[in-house]
Amino acid sequence: MLLRFIKDWALPTSMIMGAAAYFAGRALPLSAEMKGEILDGVTTLQPLLLFAMLYCAFCKVSPHDMRPHRWHVWLLLTQMTLFVLACLALMQVSATMHPSMGYFFEGFMLAIVCPTATACAVITQKLGGDSATTTTYTLTINLAVAVVAPLMLPLVSEQGDLTFLAAFLTISKKVFPLLIFPLLLAWATRYLLPRIHAMILNVRDLAFYLWLVALALAIAVTCRALWHSSATAEDIGAIAIATLIACIFQFAFGKWVGSHYGQTIEAGQAMGQKNTIFIIWLGYTYLSPLSATAGGFYSIWHNLVNSFQLYKRKTKK
C-alpha cells in the first residue's frame, strides 16, 4: 500500500525527500568543510542528471517527428511579451514601491521568461501526449530566451555594467550544453549505435526516475537558500504568490491554446513546466539571491500540477 502511494505521488514524495535530506544533513555534526564538499557535489551532480535525463528523453524522439506547430507561435509570443512587460513594470516599482512588490515582479518575470523544462518531454509522454512537439518547443523557447533575455536584463539587473553581448554569451553557455548536446548525442546513438539505442528504450521510465532525483536535489538547494536568507516573510511570500500566479496562468493558457489545435496536453506542459534550475541560476546571476528562490517555489507548484495530472490519468485508466 505504501509503495503504491509513493509511486502514484512520486513527484511530491521526491520534493519531501529533498527537503528532509537537507534538514537531516544540517542536523548532522559535520564540519563546514564537509558541508561545502557536499554542496559542491550537488552542484556538479545536478547538470549531469539533467543531461542524462534529457538524453534518455531525446532517444525516444525521432528527428522526423520534430516540426513546428501553430501553437508554438502563440505560446512564444505570449511568453516574450509578458516577460518584456514584467521587466518594464519592475523598472517602475523598484524605485517607487515597497521592496516586496519588486520581489513579486522579479519572481513573476523569472517564472515567465524561463524556458520549458528538460523534463517536459518525459512528463508529456507519461500523460499520453506527443513528446516530439514539446521537444521542438523546448528548443525554440531556449533559442528565444537566449536572444530576448539579454536585451531586457541589463535594464533590471543589479550589475550596472551588464551588456547584451555579455549576457547573451553567459546565457548561451548555460543553455546550449544542456540542450543541444544531449539532442545530438541521442540522434547519433539512434543512427550509429542502434543496439544501445534499443537498450535505452527498453528501460521503462528511466528519464522519469532521473528527474525524481534531480527534483529532490533542486528542493534541497531551495531549502538551503531559504534557510540562509535574511529576507522577511513578506518578501518570500511575494515571490511565492507571484510564481503561483505565473504557474496557474501558464498551464491554463497553454492548455487553452493547445485545445484549438488538438494538443492540449502538449501545449499545457510546454508553457507550464519550467526549467526551474535555470530560474535559480538566472536570479542569482542577474538579480538577487532571494529572487533565485522563485525557481524553488515554481518547482513546487508545477510538480504539484503534474502530480495531479498523472494521478488523474492513472485513475481514468
Any overview of this molecule?
The chain is mostly helical. The chain is 80% helix and 0% strand. It is built from 15 helices and no strands. The chain has helices at 2-8, 10-27, 32-59, 70-96, 99-113, 120-126, 131-156, 164-175, 180-192, 194-202, 206-227, 233-259, 264-272, 276-286, 293-316. Helix 4 packs parallel to helix 7 (131-156), helix 5 crosses helix 15 (293-316) and helix 9 packs across helix 10 (194-202). The longest helix is centred in the N-terminal third of the chain and has 28 residues, at 32-59.
Q: In a nutshell, what does this entry contain?
A:
The protein is mostly helical and 317 residues long. Helices cover 80% and strands 0% of the residues. The protein is globular.
List the keywords:
0% strand, 15 helices, 317 residues
Outline, from the CA principal axes? globular
Strand content: under 5%
Low-confidence stretches: none
Number of E-state strands? 0
Q: How big is the Rg?
A: 19 Å
Structural class, from helix and strand content?
Answer: mainly alpha
Number of helices: 15
**Average of per-residue pLDDT values:** 80
Largest beta sheet, briefly?
none
Element string (H = helix, E = strand): HHHHHHHHHHHHHHH
How helix-rich are the residues, as a percent range?
Answer: over 70%
Span between termini:
19 Å
